[in-house]
């Protein structure tokens, strides 16, 4: 499949409530999707970057940051970067809104044939 990107429609704008995570199966990846209080929508892999792992969809959103529910790591939803003093990164995916449809793009290297 190479480096082809794949776009998936994951719902409508109304499906995503402000500051509440939602788990969405998207091809081979389970996403945690969040709508911030300013209406922006972000998608990250629903996999905590902490060594012990865990889900992220149940985290608390404040501004553009996600506080993970198990270890209280602060994660920037825009980049997936864990903020100091912790370190790590969660996979983040581009989200677009087309009219009422919310779409996410996965890189082709993630898609298994």
TrEMBL record:
Keywords: 2Fe-2S, Iron, Iron-sulfur, Metal-binding, Nitrate assimilation, Oxidoreductase. This is Assimilatory nitrite reductase (NAD(P)H) small subunit. One of its GO terms (biological process) is nitrate assimilation. PROSITE patterns: RIESKE. It comes from Paenibacillus typhae. Residues 8-104 form the Rieske domain. Pfam families: Rieske_2 (PF13806). SUPFAM superfamilies: ISP domain (SSF50022). InterPro entries: Rieske-like_NirD (IPR012748), Rieske_2Fe-2S (IPR017941), Rieske_2Fe-2S_sf (IPR036922). One of its GO terms (molecular function) is metal ion binding. The keyword Transferase does not apply.
